[in-house]
Write a structure and sequence with these properties.
Layout: E1 7-10, E2 16-20, E3 31-34, H1 37-45, H2 52-69, H3 76-91, H4 98-112, H5 119-154, E4 157-158, E5 163-167, H6 182-191, E6 195-201, H7 208-219, E7 225-228, H8 233-239, E8 244-247, E9 251-252, E10 258-261, H9 264-273, E11 278-281, H10 304-311, E12 324-327, E13 334-337, E14 340-342, H11 352-359, H12 386-393, H13 395-400, E15 409-413, E16 420-427, E17 433-439, E18 442-443, E19 447-451, H14 455-470, E20 478-482, E21 487-491, E22 498-499, H15 500-506, H16 513-527, H17 535-545, H18 549-558, H19 578-585, H20 588-603, E23 607-609, E24 618-620, E25 627-629, E26 636-638, H21 640-657, H22 665-691, H23 709-740, H24 746-749, H25 754-774, H26 781-790
Parallel strand pairs: 5-6, 5-8, 6-7, 8-11, 11-13
Antiparallel strand pairs: 1-2, 2-3, 9-10, 10-12, 13-14, 15-16, 16-17, 17-21, 18-19, 20-21, 22-24, 23-26, 24-25
Helix pairs in contact: 1-2, 2-4, 2-5, 3-4, 3-5, 5-6, 16-21, 16-22, 21-22, 21-23, 21-25, 22-23, 22-26, 23-25
Length: 791
């Protein structure tokens, strides 16, 4: 959230609204009290508030204040009639701003469907709706910022590159309820450490750029901020360069034409001439498919006096003073909304109508495709095609590994996972390497009969970014991401680093891997929990990551459901484990405990989980501190114990598998020691973060409630005890599913003798069932290890 407030709103005892007079910024900060719709109309008309999103919110909140102040309503019908006339009046304040019209239509639709039996019900409906719009605008803006940053960092301009932006008018927190649209993209880049500079055009004649955007740039301490006059934009592109232009929009037509502040069109022309990508960032509500093209947009013309007064022109000079211009779609690279980026189709046009149809309504309730869907623009890569793809799409990666053409590159496919393609790409001239990972639109180990969303790659990219910010020592760097291809290019982790699972099979001892993983879990889980985040931040993160629901459904199916029933996906060592599998299906106590853990997995949103943390998603070497966690495509908000339990389970599976390998009893004991080290490292690191007031600044377990060291320690002990119980239960679930479910582990699968393998697996099942059913019976990790050693 920005430090700046375009408005101040309180709901109790009655709705109260004041707005920042933006005509007086930056000289002074003055807030204007809004008492009725006439006040709201006035500040919108006089441009004391501006920006399409903010105009709509001020109109709705102004109406809420207006209706709440009147106490002598006679009936619900009277209130509805007043609302209809007041909405029509508010529409006349700014005819070009489609957000205002959409907001009025949405509000009237809500009122039409509410209980109108009393005036109070109708007024409360309007107030609730207006407050919902306020909260939604902030969340939508942050999503626009994230999608915009992804677009800039994932296509043409690379994720590793610092970006120089150019923008016009003001599209920041002063144009919205908070964060901003086009300037929100700059904020997101700054947050990621990728903003090198931003040039703000002054934006004549009202100077929104010099008065407002420049003010926000200074207030937010954006790097490389510079103010330029409108007429110097092209020359700056030529002499100093720009990586992208990002502007706002008040209306977007069906063909992709956009109406925005006067001067945007000429900026787009300059950008096209200098090959600078030109993006439009605006809310979904600005997409107006009722207008075929920009020729259909009504362009507001402002009074001549405004231009004369701001330019010191002689009185009486004839003026033409349009407030907006229209940028044609051929000049636009992409249109960024909170629901995604509208990109050009194969025919070079923007399918705005198709995008609106796809995203209208509640996305969560949209019916999933019944068959395999290959997204437009998606190309499954091969060893032969990858070199050319990298050369054409990622000049930064080419520079990073010192390659000058595709002929320098050689690719080999090395993935053995269940879902994705993984390649090692080498510059044959200097042997520098990178990893390329591409998601397939189906479950690889099953085939095209089980479709799977490519959006998981976007969530993986986002999760890696979050993990790198929280724990850079144990997270690989990402160099490039393409959302349409589900493709990511990242740091190559060289030998002697190998997949941890293979190292455990080979009997390699790693001096710090368990403690490293404990630190990773503690830092990433704490940083994304309400111990670190505010309540608003926590809810926003939960909302975003809940969209990874398809991967959650996969987890809920293959871990929490299918292993306990007859299911075609299940497989086990047969006939040796046939009776064991049937016993699982008939064990009521086990299935009840598993169901409770499933409910916890689905409902407890404690922190951002890796959600698939196993020894196959860890690379490491025998050198201290050389541990890297990869593959977080299942990431979502869930119970912390799921991540800790997942990696603990994989150590346990490696332990029971030792009976089928030749590493000796001493090595098996070493693995159990890693289970202890993992938990102790997690617990100590997590509590250290919690004890640091610079880290523990979130809404949960507020420090003012636990001021003494004793009280804080007691609160931590209670919380950690809950996590420990969860960890054991989830560990058991992960173990059991790897023995009788769809996807097994190489630790056990590599034991060729079926009798020897089933003996190890049966031991694993006994430990798993004990942990699932009796997790609460164990007070220390040493007790757990002692139990495992006796099975």
């Amino acid at each position: 959230m920005s430090k700046l407030q375009s408005l101040k709103y309180t709901s109790l005892p009655l709705p109260a609204l004041s707005v920042l007079d933006q005509l007086q910024v930056p000289d002074i900060k003055v807030y204007i009290q809004i008492n009725n719709v006439e006040d709201a109309w006035s500040v919108i008309r006089k441009m004391q508030v501006r920006g399409a999103p903010l105009i709509a919110i001020v109109a709705c909140l102004g109406l809420a204040v207006d209706l709440s102040c009147k106490k002598d309503w006679q009936s619900g019908e009277e209130v509805v009639s007043a609302i209809e006339s007041k909405c029509e009046y508010l529409r006349t304040s700014r005819p070009t701003a489609v957000n205002l019209f959409n907001a009025m239509d949405e509000l009237l639709g809500t009122v039409a469907s509410c209980d109108q039996s009393s005036a109070d019900n109708v007024v409360k409906t309007v107030v609730s709706h207006a407050e919902m719009m306020l909260a939604r605008d902030v969340a939508d803006n942050e999503a626009i910022g994230a999608y915009g940053a992804d677009a800039l960092l994932g296509s043409g301009v690379n994720e590793k590159t610092s970006i120089r932006l150019m923008t016009i008018c003001n599209t920041g927190s002063l144009a919205t309820a908070g964060f901003g649209t086009a300037l929100g993209v700059a904020r997101e880049l700054q947050k990621r450490g990728k903003l090198k500079g931003i040039a703000a055009l002054e934006t004549r004649p009202y100077n929104q750029g010099s008065r407002l955007t420049a003010f926000e740039i200074l207030e937010e301490e954006m790097p490389g901020g510079v103010l330029i006059c409108d007429s110097s934009a092209a020359y700056m592109m030529k002499t100093k360069g720009a990586d992208a232009c990002v502007v706002g929009a008040d209306r977007v037509c069906a063909d992709g034409s956009t109406a925005n502040k006067i001067g945007t069109y000429q900026l787009a022309i300059a950008a096209a001439y200098h090959n600078v990508p030109f993006y439009v960032a605006s809310p979904f509500t600005t997409l107006d498919t009722s207008l075929k093209s920009g020729a259909d947009i009504e362009i507001e013309e402002r009074p001549a006096e405004e231009l004369i007064n701001t330019s010191r022109a002689p009185k009486g000079m004839p003026c033409w003073n349009p407030a907006f211009d229209v940028t044609s779609p051929d000049l636009i690279t992409g249109i960024i909304t909170e629901k995604g980026v509208i990109e050009r189709g194969p025919d070079g046009t923007f399918d705005v109508i198709g995008f609106v149809k796809k995203h209208s309504g509640d996305e969560v309730t949209l019916e999933e495709p019944s068959g395999l869907v290959i997204p437009s623009g998606y190309t499954e890569q091969t060893c032969a095609s990858l070199p050319s793809y990298i050369e054409e799409n990622s000049p930064y990666v080419m520079a990073e590994i010192g390659a000058t053409s595709a002929s320098d590159l050689s690719a080999i496919e090395m993935g053995d996972g269940n879902l994705n393609l993984v390649f090692i790409v080498t510059n044959t001239k200097n042997e520098k390497k990178i990893i390329v990972k591409q998601s397939l639109p189906y479950v690889r180990c099953v085939g095209e009969s089980w479709p799977l969303t490519l959006e998981r790659s976007h969530f993986e990219f986002k999760a890696l970014s979050v993990h790198y910010a929280a724990c850079p020592s144990f997270t690989p760097k990402v160099y490039y991401f393409s959302r349409v291809n589900g493709l990511m290019i990242m740091e190559y982790i060289p030998p002697p680093n190998i997949i941890l699972r293979k190292g455990l099979i080979a009997g390699i001892k790693y001096p710090s891997v368990a403690s490293d993983l404990g630190v990773f879990c503690a830092k990433t889980l704490f940083a994304t929990s309400s111990l670190k985040l505010s309540a608003a931040e926590t809810r926003q993160e939960i909302e975003f990551w809940s969209k990874n629901h398809e991967m959650c459904t996969l987890t809920e199916t293959v871990i929490f459901t299918e292993p306990y029933i007859e299911a075609s996906n299940n497989r086990w060592t047969s006939p040796q484990l046939d009776d064991d599998k049937k016993a699982i299906e008939n064990d009521f106590e086990l299935k009840l405990a598993a169901s409770k853990l499933k409910r916890k997995f689905m409902t407890e949103t404690q922190a951002l989980l890796h959600a698939d943390l196993h020894t196959g998603s860890v690379m490491c070497s025998p050198e201290v501190g050389k541990t890297f966690v990869i593959d977080p495509e299942f990431a979502f908000y869930g119970p912390m114990g799921f991540d800790v339990g997942a990696i603990l389970a994989n150590f346990m599976l490696a332990y029971v598998a030792q009976g089928g390998h030749q590493n000796g009893e001493e090595y098996a004991d070493w693995i159990l020691e890693q289970v202890v080290a993992l938990w102790k490292s997690f617990k100590s690191t997590f509590c250290e973060l919690w004890s640091d007031p610079k880290e523990h600044k979130g809404c949960a377990y507020h420090r003012s409630m636990f001021e003494s060291d004793e009280a804080l320690s007691a609160a931590q002990d209670s919380f950690i005890a809950e996590i420990f119980t969860d960890t054991l239960g989830f560990a058991g679930m992960k173990m059991l599913r790897r023995i009788v479910g769809i996807a097994h582990v190489e630790d056990l699968e590599s034991i060729a003798d079926a009798d020897a393998r089933s003996k190890c697996e049966r031991r694993g099942l006994e430990i798993a069932k004990e942990l699932i059913k009796k997790a609460k019976a164990y007070g220390t990790i040493e007790d757990v290890v002692a139990m495992a050693a006796t099975k």
